[in-house]
Design brief:
Two copies of one chain form a homodimer. The first copy, chain A, contains twelve helices and ten strands. In chain A, helix 5 runs antiparallel to helix 10. The two termini of chain A are 23 Å apart.
Chain lengths: 376, 376
């Protein structure tokens, strides 16, 4: 196979091939991290095997082109795919289908641009799919079926919904300038703002001041100005979310208000999608999957943002069936063994889900697998 | 005189010199524009001559190093100083003092860095002063005296105050990430957010949608996401403020709420400074100058943000004497003649001011002139 740009990424392919096993790649690319999994092409069955066979998992950093630029995003994606293939003992000649689900894919032009360079990497007979990462997250909660609503809240946030008859809608996901206030970036930026306001006399004193300054090893709030200018990357700012949660848990009113406002923002995104798609039916009580992913929702702290968002949504849409996949796959050397990858969501606090749960990269692979099997 | 970096900027100095007249440079550098004026060294008098003798005025773009980087900021500043000297028929050998008042100067380290390269441009006997641009704006309203409070609201916003005994305080001015919501950037970002929220079902419909889309020549709100990512410069976003004002004037509730919130934010910055410095005395009624500058406050529209901010401040501090300098100098080839440069502020709506008014670059020159005369 011809080597293209970043040829060295594919150097491992000079090694012996792995005996003709056909594989599928699923990639979940976000602003904070990118995960690629490699699974074998299995035959269709209902239900799917549990756990799903996953041959390998590889992880890397940001692959949102809006955040790091086109070249860096492409290199990250290409490298993490190569890593997953290498770990699985396969190479590109074994690949039958690839699904990239990447944040920052908002328009057909984004999709086409990525498809173009993906086509340079894989030969013409490989099926290629490019979507927004929200799609993979939904598929991860529904085992490849596109129905329901997904809420992602990590560094950024977006709500995406799909109906069984193929309609879709989204809310938020517009980036920090355009007011994604429930996101990790939004929460942390509000906390930093609260520190500045307390310092210059525009707002109440808050525990956030000492906790954020000590976390960042700064001595005065006015040093935050320089700190944000040095490197305004969203992920760097969003990394302060745990500090906000700690302050809220310790009773700080300012931190509590920021988290409560964020809960309402996140719930509002979901409600807007559910309403536009009538996902809950005419009586408002129909059941639909509500997949929730991302660091802000998975923090698993006493002040549990994800749980509060679910409560807020269930008040209006009691038919929502929350599903929260854990970032764990069945075969992963880099995670502790003995941990069930599909923990149930909040035990019995919320309605039990009838869906198996996998991580978004597996959701992406399932989308590719579904399309590939249907086309074969 | 030796030529330094960007030597070509000073090429005009090879021309004949202008006969030994001593001059002072005052520079007001902001995120949107930079203005340098050249005035002769005049003898001290009380009152100062009105109008002040200004030999030349030159303008350029952004000189905030946080916004365009150190090199571009330096080049802009150096070029606009050279332009002012060239227009005045002087050159560097005539300069006795320079005051640069530049936004983004927040720390002694910022000040020292600029002083270092400024020293490369001017010989050792020239007095050099570097301040935050708020200082020049205040001096422009008080004819060189540092007393009172200044509110700047252009692309960014900051409130700065000084007492007669030399204490100072500031509020806001922390940049877009840290919540300068009353700024031009803040107003426009909230308007863009409102468009996205209306589009995806999270907020009420607003006239802002059609007006902003047609201004930007876009066809759908989701294209705003790409638009903000292409070039996230604050000034580009702040340029949408007039659209927000137009929508508010036409009765749009969303736009009106954004402007009203911004008025309260801007007034709050001033109140925080006035309170910390006790500028209004123990009875809260003492008189103090309140200098107001920047595009957001000078828009001079029916929905007049500056007037509303003043009203809001006067409710708490009736002693505030609002002063709003016009961006006009007495000797300017690039402005229409016959226009009085020191328009009174809002006619009789507010208290008359006892101060002459000049533009911030002249304020910077007055600061340099004061220090130079006192030291001579």
């Amino acid at each position: 196979m011809k080597r293209y740009r970043n040829g060295e990424i594919w150097d491992f392919e000079t090694a012996e091939e792995s005996g003709g096993r056909e594989v599928i790649l699923g990639l979940d690319g976000g602003t904070t991290s990118t995960v690629c999994i490699c699974m074998p092409v299995i035959s269709m069955s209902d239900p799917l095997p549990d756990p799903l066979p996953v041959l390998a998992r590889a992880a890397a950093g940001c692959s949102n082109h809006n955040s790091v630029g086109e070249d860096a995003a492409r290199e990250t994606i290409e490298k993490v795919m190569a890593d997953a293939l290498l770990k699985s003992g396969s190479n590109r000649s074994a690949v039958r289908a690839v699904c990239l689900a990447v944040s920052g894919v908002n328009h057909p032009t984004d999709q086409q641009r990525i498809l173009n360079w993906l086509r340079d990497i894989f030969p013409g007979n490989v099926r290629l799919y490019v979507h927004n990462d929200a799609l993979a997250a939904l598929a991860s909660g529904t085992m490849g079926k596109l129905h329901g609503c997904v809420l992602i809240a990590g560094t950024g946030t977006i709500a995406y919904g799909f109906t069984e008859d193929g309609r879709d809608a989204r809310a938020a996901g517009a980036g920090p300038i355009l007011g994604d206030w429930g996101s990790g970036y939004g929460i942390a930026a509000q906390a930093l703002t609260a520190v500045i306001r307390a310092y210059d006399g525009r707002g109440p004193d808050t525990m956030l001041t000492s906790n954020i300054l000590s976390t960042l090893e700064l001595s005065s709030p006015d040093e935050l100005i320089g700190w944000t200018y040095v490197d305004p990357s969203w992920a760097r700012i969003a990394a302060l979310v745990p500090v906000v949660v700690s302050c809220a848990e310790a009773g700080d009113e300012v931190a509590n208000k920021i988290l409560q406002d964020s809960v309402e923002e996140l719930a509002l995104s979901v409600k807007a999608v559910v309403q536009r798609l009538s996902l809950s039916g005419e009586d408002g009580k129909h059941s639909f999957p509500l997949v929730m992913v991302g660091g802000v929702l998975e923090a698993n702290r006493r002040w549990d943002i994800g749980r509060e968002v679910v409560k807020c949504i269930l008040r209006d849409y009691p038919g929502a069936v929350p599903i929260r996949p854990k970032p764990l796959g069945p075969i992963q050397c880099d995670f502790p063994t003995g941990v069930s990858p599909w923990d149930s969501f909040y035990g019995t606090d919320c309605r039990a889900s009838s869906f198996s749960r996998v991580e978004p990269a597996v959701g992406a692979a399932l989308l590719a697998w579904n399309s590939f099997m249907n086309a074969r």
